[in-house]
Write a structure and sequence with these properties.
Blueprint (H helix, E strand, L loop, with lengths): L8 E3 L1 H13 L5 H19 L5 E6 L3 H15 L3 E6 L6 H12 L4 E3 L11 E5 L11 H12 L4 E4 L21 E5 L2 E2 L8 H4 L1 E5 L15 E3 L19 E5 L6 H13 L4 E6 L4 H7 L4 E4 L3 H10 L2 E4 L7 H12 L4 E3 L2 H8 L8 E3 L3 H8 L3 H6 L1 H12 L2 E4 L5 E3 L5 E3 L12 H14 L4 H23 L10 H8 L5
Parallel strand pairs: 1-8, 2-3, 2-5, 3-4, 5-6, 6-7, 7-9, 10-19, 11-12, 11-14, 12-13, 14-15, 15-16, 16-17
Antiparallel strand pairs: 1-10, 17-18, 18-19
Helix pairs in contact: 2-3, 3-4, 7-15, 9-10, 11-12, 15-16, 16-17
Length: 494
């Protein structure tokens, strides 16, 4: 096994610092050599993305991230490029001081940053201000510099982490660098892939700096970046009974669309049978639009009992409402003890009446629903999505999906997976209903809760990307994902 085997593992900032220290203390690699390797990797990345760049401006902070920047600028000059450095004060720490001294000794120009200073002309800018060393909002003078850098409209490479982005949580508490590319060193930082961070990191490249496999031995990654996956082909003798029966419960007055999307997603997700328990006013529209859905009028809990007996998996919440009708169906469904996917008003009712679950249960809250389930607020969820999703899974005894950019999946043991797909076009009504149906269909086909959640989130996001690739992000609607979903499930991505 080589270091590249760890490319899908995600680590906390503290874990990466420990790996860095282990490389120095145990493997005997000097910190300055690691800095040199980082600079060399950054220059390779820069030239791969901007091969015609001849002038670069490197913005260096006082610490080791700034040291990386000084050495990058020196290597760029040795390669025949024009490189200038804008420095935030004096360098601190032996390695950073040495890197700056080497750059200046080689004749490299260093400009001290102040509010009236003009920025150097450059084809590419490099952010080497703070890296992982800063987990609070940028100071006002640095924020002003970041705004000036953005105003140049020049491409930007961030070293390790865009300054102002919390590499642990994905939170951005103030102004921050918006990179086109981020080259991150030694190990991939978990916060780069979730929350608001994906809007700041651009393309992420991981470079292990040539470190040996022994560096990672005995170190358990904090999370894992999901990889493309689908279900295996069905046996030729398969029949509908082999693929489960999903019962989707919801669709209060005026919300037929939510329960239809959920049910149709369960069909396209491969469930053998899909029934809908809903208000009678929706039956004609559901039968006309999608006759494969077995729609039933349900006035209350008694009418639901027969449907529950025939179902293998329940999808509860889309359009359910929080009134007497929805609450009664919710209670009856949860008491049935069947594999369950809970979303939307199913989660809002759970927040009002918390209860732990046993068996195969998946909950799929967005940040607002997660905040209600945890008795918190959305700002707290955003500050640490990893802590929030783990607490949801632990508190309720479920597999929890925390939706949003870089959706997170956690189980009660603390295991976390991060979804790297999806796009802003998916921020539209009905996408959550679709995900509920997909995950329910995967449960019905034999996946356990963890498998169904990870595979369902991945297929949903990748289908959104395929649909956006065809016709663009703006105007993307939930039903646009159904055909790409079917392609992905059958291994026919195109």
């Amino acid at each position: 096994m080589t270091a590249s085997a760890h490319r899908h593992e995600l680590y906390t900032v503290d874990q990466v610092r420990a790996l860095d220290r282990r490389a120095i203390d145990t493997l005997g690699i000097p910190g300055y050599e690691l800095m040199q390797r980082a600079a060399a990797a950054a220059l390779v990345c820069l030239r791969q993305h901007w091969p015609r760049a001849r002038r670069i401006a490197v913005y260096c902070g006082p610490g080791n991230n700034g040291g990386d920047g000084f050495l990058l600028a020196m290597l760029a000059r040795e390669a025949g490029m024009h490189a200038e450095v804008v420095a935030l004060g004096d360098s601190r720490g032996d390695d950073a001081v040495r890197a700056r001294r080497e750059f200046e000794r080689a004749g490299g120009p260093v400009h001290a940053w102040h509010a009236e200073a003009a920025l150097p002309e450059a084809d590419v800018q490099v952010d080497a201000l703070f890296g992982t060393g800063l987990q609070r909002a940028l100071a006002s003078d640095v924020a002003a510099l970041v705004q000036r850098m953005r105003a140049t409209a020049r491409p930007l490479l961030a070293l390790d982490v865009p300054s102002g982005v919390n590499a642990d949580t994905g939170d951005v508490p103030g102004e921050a660098i918006r990179a086109d590319v981020t080259v991150t060193f030694i190990a991939a930082k978990r916060g780069l892939y979730t929350g608001v961070a994906p809007g700041y990191v651009g393309q992420v490249h991981w470079d292990p700096l040539g470190l040996p496999e022994t560096l990672w031995q005995g170190v358990q990654a904090d999370a894992e970046l999901m990889q493309p996956a689908t279900l295996p082909p069905r046996p030729r003798q398969a029949h509908k009974g082999n693929n489960g029966h999903v019962l989707a419960i919801g669709g209060e007055h005026g919300t037929a669309g939510a329960i239809r999307l959920c049910g149709e997603a369960a069909l396209r997700g491969g469930a053998g049978l899909v029934s809908i328990a809903t208000r009678g006013e929706h039956l004609v529209a559901l039968n006309a639009a999608r006759p494969e859905l077995m729609a039933h009028e349900v006035h209350g809990p008694q009418a639901l009992e027969d449907l529950l007996q025939r179902a293998t998996v329940l999808a509860v919440g889309p359009g359910l409402g929080q009134g007497a009708w929805g609450h009664a169906l919710w209670m009856t469904a949860l008491d049935a003890g069947k594999p369950l996917v809970l979303d939307a008003d199913g989660l809002n009712l759970l927040a009002r009446e918390p209860r732990p679950f046993k068996g195969s249960t998946v909950i799929t809250p967005h940040p607002g629903e997660a905040a209600r389930l945890l008795g918190s607020d959305t700002a707290a969820i955003a500050r640490d999505r990893f802590a929030a999703v783990r607490e949801l899974a632990r508190r309720y005894g479920v597999v929890a999906v925390l939706k949003g950019a870089g959706s997170l999946i956690a189980d009660p043991s603390g295991r976390v997976a991060v979804c790297p797909w999806g796009n802003p076009g998916m921020a539209s009504g009905g996408m959550g209903d679709l995900l509920t149906g997909i995950v329910a269909a995967l449960l019905a086909q034999g996946c356990d809760a963890w498998q169904a959640a990870c595979l369902g989130v991945g297929l949903h996001a990748r289908a959104g990307d395929l649909a956006a690739r065809q016709h663009g992000e703006r105007g993307l609607i939930a039903s646009d994902l159904l055909e790409p979903l079917r392609l992905l499930l059958n291994g026919r991505e195109s």
